[in-house]
Design brief:
Elements (H helix, E strand, L loop, with lengths): L1 H27 L6 H27 L5 H29 L10 H22 L3
């Protein structure tokens, strides 16, 4: 039950923040971003919103009674957070003139966790075939 609530809460929060940050980036910051910054920011928002929906779908379709399902949910939650929010941190810090370079390696780590989540989800489907 805790894992379902975590997954639903994270999905709802990521969805809310994705819309908020997307609107903020498209309206309040569009004149401040360089082309590369705008593309990076949009990538963070896109991945965040996509995985918010994935988390909500998973929370209503998985029972989270097996460790595998728990790992899937946690990989998507942590991966989304690390991937998207490290991009936001890089873009915003660069706008302020002091790019937080330590976040550079965090983005691919988040992407790796997203890949792990997808791979585990695929494995959970295939494992039921045999």
């Amino acid at each position: 039950m805790e894992q379902i609530l975590l997954t639903q809460s994270a999905g709802a929060l990521f969805g809310f923040l994705g819309v908020l940050l997307g609107a903020f980036g498209a309206h309040a910051l569009k004149d401040k971003f360089t082309g590369d910054q705008a593309r990076a920011f949009e990538t963070g928002v896109r991945y965040q919103l996509l995985h918010a929906v994935v988390l909500l779908v998973l929370s209503f379709n998985l029972s989270f009674t097996s460790p595998l399902e728990g790992y899937i949910g946690k990989a998507f939650v942590l991966g989304t957070f690390l991937f998207s929010f490290s991009i936001y941190g890089l873009v915003f810090s660069e706008l302020r003139g002091r790019k937080w370079r330590f976040l550079g390696p965090v983005t691919p780590l988040g992407g790796l966790l997203l890949l792990v989540g997808w791979a585990l989800l695929g494995y959970s489907f295939v494992a039921h075939l045999f």
